[in-house]
Amino acid sequence: MTTQIALFGGVYSNYLALEAAITDARARGISDLYCLGDLGAFGPFPDRVFPILQRHNVQCIQGNYDDSIGNDLDNCQCGYTAERDNYYANISYLYTQQHTSADNKAFLRQLPRTRIIQVEQTQILLCHGSPRKLNEFLWESTSPDHFLEPFFSQHAVDVIAVTHTGIKWQRQLPSGLFVNVGVLGRPENDGTTNVWYTILEMSGSKTSVEFVPVEYDYQQLAQDMQNEQLPSEFIDTINTGWWTTCLEVLPQKERISGKH
Amino acid sequence: MPHSNNSVMGTTLPTISLSHLDELWFQVSGTLCNLTCNHCFISCSPTNNNFGFLSLAAVHASLQQSVTLGVKGYYFTGGEPFLNPEMTAILIATLKYGPATVLTNATVLKQDWIDALVAASRASRYSLEFRVSIDGFDAATNDPIRGAGTFARARAGVQQLVKAGFLPIITATRTWPQGNDRTVLANFIKTLKEAGYDRPRIKLLPALQIGAEIQRSRGYTDAQRVTSEMLDGFDNSQFVCEHARIVTDRGVHVCPILIEEPDSLLGTDLQQATQADYAITHGACLTCYQYGAICSNSSLGLTSGDS
Ligand code: SF4
Ligand code: SF4
Predict the structure, then answer these.
(1) What is d(CA B44, CA B39) in angstroms, rounded to the nearest whole number?
(2) Which residue range forms the structural domain that includes residue A33?
């Protein structure tokens, strides 16, 4: 038997991209949908993503943002270290905190941090940053094979899926398949306006990965963000596909391929 | 987590255990440097042979050992790493294992080394980072600290790196009042952009009041220490010694800052040195406590993009 599942990374309040990704996955006949956390951040109207997730039974785990918003912590725990990055992160955090309902905060609070699911004969670990830390950045260019390998045996899984960085990548290792599923919340710093989600296909004991580009009404999102008076730097990212903030955590390889 | 079983005369010492060896550092040029900066926290100079070079073979042995320890990234420091004749080969070898960062003053870089590193960096899936220390945004502010003519030479080094496609992280040690950070940073950005580096990455570092810095400003007083109470509820991952070790030609030490302290040497074997706890009782430990993450690549505090 062959089974496909869809994995969504950070949604960052991008309800339009979330809907588009779900529609795409459904059109492919995929019934099991998962989200790896960070439902809010960056985008407008944070409450809008919750009914969509619930209506389509998207199974979520908790990201750092969800932990922060759900528990009313004083910052987003995104892990930025630069003052400018934190300045912008704080603007979206306060906005998201103020515009997330008490019920939705309660929903965020109870989300599991990690989840292991079995699909066919494959054990899949879903987590947000890394298997060991909610907000660890696992970039392709700073994650050596021997650093990733032990996680498979520690958790007794064949596949590990993470998000948090905003840029998708995958690597087949001797112990299993590692995949960063990318994010739905914002484009991935490549000058295109689409966002990405990931399909895993399990066939017997084999797993393959498909990264799926998602076109959505980004102009509407940009308009919403403008109406909500979110920073113009964020809107630029939606309109151009280039990151304008949160750049200082990027390693050389990921940074040089962007514009800013 | 700190262990609190370490005590002297009834006082519990603040002690840090390694959680995981994320960063493996190499004192690759020992204490030998072509410069003699007056704030250098290990007093490096052209004549300081306290610590010697690490050979490619020695680094390679540690790299191999690091695989079983699951190391996440490799860091090379000195002195000036590029005085080590095998430095380029060492970085090329390292990029087969994982991401590499080299801390250089960028005054001795040769174009053929850079060309070889560009090729190795392209061939590797891992990032190669250059961290370039410059301590002022012009000759008038930099050269009194780093030596006559060093600003112009470092600027030329940065230009070489940028031209080759690297985005060097410029690190500047704070030798000005902290309140001036924004002005200093704005001046750095202006200078670097004028030099052709249009999206500079900059990291401002606190001065460590050890080594040559003791003469330039002052050392730590006996009261300037981390206490075990201060670690209550503190995020210990802010300390480099919580996730790093450094290899020198003498063995494996607790962190890149304290190699000259006799108690920093934790053994000759990497595996053994990862198991040793360390009492963070030195003055410099207080700077780590106050500023956190001072050895990491990601920018600390004010950075290039600050408006
Ligand atoms: S601060 Fe760096 S460049 Fe200056 S003497 Fe020390 S090691 Fe050399
Ligand atoms: S100087 Fe910093 S990194 Fe080194 S032992 Fe002290 S606290 Fe740890």
Answers:
(1) 10
(2) 2-256
